[in-house]
Fold:
Amino acid sequence: MSTTTAPPKPARALPPLMSLTDAAADRLRQLYAGGQEGKLLRVGVRTKGCSGMSYDMSWVGEAGPGDEVVRDKGMTVLVDRKASLFLIGTVMDYAVADLSAGFVFLNPNEKGRCGCGESFHV
Structure:
């Protein structure tokens, strides 16, 4: 009796942890060159709101042992390793509206948002 084994399937490429739009990279460039010079933006998630989770951003002096380093479009952003499973494939954008401006996250893992848009769930 002969046995044959199928060749192993090639590993599927994982999407990048996070990427930046041109608008987000431009805004980060402005922030890094201005008042946040010498600091890095850390992105994470925390428990908040009626849907359970919200994006959390803070300025830090350097990457910590629990940070993933994302480099895109010449910019560096840190991602809290505890949040990485929730953020895989997320695109960080910078949007300007009539009465507001800020970073927004286009997250393919989101299954829904609360009515006010403050929080999300996966």
